[in-house]
Amino acid sequence: MSSRSRVDPYLAAVLLVVFALFLPKLVLADTHLYRELLTPRVLLTAGCALKICALVIAALLAGRVARSFAPGDAMRTGWWLATVWLGCWSLGQGYLGVYQIGLGTSAPFPSGGDLFFILGYPAMIAAFAFFVHAMTTTGLVGPLRAQLVVALAAALPAMVLLVFVLRPVVSADVAPAERALNLAYPSLDVVALLPALLLARFALRLAGGAVFFVWALLSLGIVCMVAGDLLYAWFSSLSFSALDPVLDVAFIAAYLLVARAVFQQHRISVSVRAPPDEAR
User: Fold this and answer.
1) Are 191 and 125 in contact (CB under 8 A)?
2) What is the pLDDT of residues 193-209, one digit of tens each?
């Protein structure tokens, strides 16, 4: 099975459109384009719709992937946990969509959507742990201890950045619930980053194969998510909104990359069950 998919050109086109819509606002926010055409409501609606679509598709495909593995397989457990994670985040983003799409305004923070996002994190982290366990037991990626040392070294900059970002968050003059979430999101992200980097490390060992793109895309999506949450917590604590387009792009890219990673694993699962001509 080819590692490339027919959806890739469309995904690349969507990402380019996202960049073209959101990033110019950094320097053109006061122009007619963003005051009259690409209004906050238009961008909120477009961004939220993309996030919901990516998360729902990823959740549905993750469930199908889980069923493709044999009972008792660590990968099966991992993909069921990933289904819970992505399902929770779909509900969370759907809740935000009531405001962003239905009302054309930013959702309050905190909101009911944050409950679903927080509930999804333990499932995400546990899913990654099962993926790492399953990969190391194959013997294809080397001993876990050696891989863990490399992953810790790679995660160190994010840990240092986390401390730097959280300092103003702790002292920010905001509601306790908002402060707690601004601390929780980036902290949970960095916890999830370690197994994600391990998966990225494993992907390098499998470079060139179809499985490589599953873990590489998933890891890249998590990195984008970590960047978005760290920046959001920092900007929120400083009441700074000028760089919000960067946050929008980071989160949209994260969800699209995760969805593409799940789709890649789904293609692999289908190709294993189907004749070669049907798996293309």
Assistant:
1) yes
2) 888 878 877 777 766 66
Residue 100 has what DSSP assignment? I
What tokens were used for 176?
């306790």
For residues 177 and 275, give the distance between their C-alpha atoms in angstroms, rounded to a whole number.
53
* Cβ proximity of 141 and 196 under 8 Å: no
* Second-level CATH architecture of 7-278: Up-down Bundle (1.20)
Which residue, 250, 118, 110, 124, is CA-closest to 184? 118
Largest CA distance in the chain: 61
* Neighbour count for residue 254 (Cβ, 10 Å): 22
Q: Tell me the pLDDT tens digit for each residue of 10-63.
A: 899 999 999 999 999 988 888 999 998 999 899 999 999 999 999 999 999 999
CA dihedral for 16, 20, 25, 28, sign (positive or negative): positive
Backbone phi, then psi, for 5, in 5-degree steps? Answer: -130, 155
Q: Which tokens go with 73?
A: 């397989």
> What pTM, to 2 d.p., does this model score?
0.85
Residue that has been written with the tokens 């546990």 in this structure: 126
